């Protein structure tokens, strides 16, 4: 499978809203889930650059609390936690602000002392992540990163960062990804004056996996059709001209991707025989 990725020719995006693209390797045509490939690719880039990321400077820097609150308020599952939006937001913000030095040193995520997000890690030069997903990333970093174990912390953080970097995906995938309410429920005691000094009490059994779901496209987030058109055009360009060329150079795909996200749909010699009979 490594040869397929390393030597492929990009044919085109077959279905943008379902994250499907066509690539050719030798005489065979493959349908690939470019979101799944991108997530694993960005995770690998994160591992390679760990502790030495280039940085994306946000100017002006947005307020951390407002971004987290936006994501918490938009999470349709959050009421199940039994917490208010304000208390849930406070819990996540406290988790992140208590670790600003570590986030800056290892991940190049810089949060200022007065609570503004100043810099983000850059995983791939010339590739721009969709900053509309930044509130979701910051919300997820609170309960979904395993802060109590160094190895698991680094791994889970990079997984969340990789998901933030993948091209725009269906809205339902973002909703499935954002279901963090169950892990925040155990911080409810903070509302009663208890100090939250660690996340060990957040059960790992409630960790929400990355689940792809086909439903309404992400363009439902954009009220203006023209606005979505600009976003989609920019994303398509990045997929073709930056993402796939970079994967040819640096990506080491796992076998599981071949079983699930890379499917052969045609073999040119077979097509020639079909045409000869017509």
Secondary-structure-based class equals alpha+beta
- What would you report as the Rg, rounded to the nearest angstrom? 20 Å
| Main sheet summary | 4 strands, antiparallel
Please give the count of helices. Answer: 12
pLDDT < 50 runs, ≥5 residues: 170-176, 186-207, 211-217
Mean pLDDT: 82
Write down the overall geometry.
Answer: elongated
Order of helices and strands: HEEEHEHHHEEHHHHHHEH
The tally of beta strands, per DSSP, is 7
Q: Could you tell me how far the N terminus lies from the C terminus, measured between alpha carbons in angstroms? A: 33 Å
**What topology, given as strand order, has the largest sheet?**
1-2-3-7
Strand proportion, as a percent range, falls in: 5-15%
Fraction in helix = 40-55%
Describe how the helices and strands are arranged.
Layout: H1 2-6, E1 9-15, E2 20-25, E3 28-33, H2 34-48, E4 54-57, H3 64-74, H4 85-97, H5 100-107, E5 110-111, E6 117-122, H6 134-144, H7 150-165, H8 171-177, H9 181-184, H10 225-250, H11 255-260, E7 262-267, H12 268-277
Antiparallel strand pairs: 1-2, 2-3, 3-7, 4-6, 5-6
Helix pairs in contact: 2-7, 2-10, 3-4, 3-6, 4-6, 6-7
Brief characterization of the structure:
The chain is α+β, with helices and mostly antiparallel strands.
């Amino acid at each position: 499978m490594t040869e397929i990725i390393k030597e492929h020719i990009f044919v085109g995006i077959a279905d943008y809203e379902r994250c499907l693209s066509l690539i050719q390797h030798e005489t065979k045509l493959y349908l690939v889930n470019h979101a799944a490939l991108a997530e694993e690719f960005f995770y690998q880039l994160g591992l390679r650059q760990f502790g030495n990321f280039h940085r994306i400077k946000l100017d002006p820097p947005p307020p951390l609390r407002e971004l987290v609150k936006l994501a918490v308020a938009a999470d349709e599952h959050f009421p199940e936690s039994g917490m208010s939006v304000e208390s849930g937001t406070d819990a996540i913000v406290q988790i992140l602000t208590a670790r600003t030095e570590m986030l800056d040193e290892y991940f190049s995520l810089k949060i200022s002392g007065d609570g503004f997000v100043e810099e983000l890690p850059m995983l791939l030069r010339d590739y721009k992540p969709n900053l509309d997903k930044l509130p979701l990333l910051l919300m997820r970093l609170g309960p979904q990163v395993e802060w109590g174990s160094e190895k698991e912390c680094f791994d889970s953080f990079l997984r969340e960062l990789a998901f933030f970097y993948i091209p725009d995906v269906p809205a339902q995938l973002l909703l499935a990804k954002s279901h963090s309410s169950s892990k925040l429920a155990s911080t409810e005691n903070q509302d009663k004056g208890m100090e939250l000094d660690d996340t060990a009490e957040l059960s790992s059994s409630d960790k929400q996996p990355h689940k792809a779901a086909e439903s309404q496209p992400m363009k439902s987030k954009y009220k203006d059709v023209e606005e979505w058109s600009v976003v989609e055009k920019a994303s398509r360009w990045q997929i073709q001209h930056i993402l796939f060329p970079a994967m040819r150079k640096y990506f080491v795909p796992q076998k599981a991707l071949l079983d699930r996200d890379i499917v052969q749909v045609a073999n040119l010699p077979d097509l020639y025989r079909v045409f000869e009979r017509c």
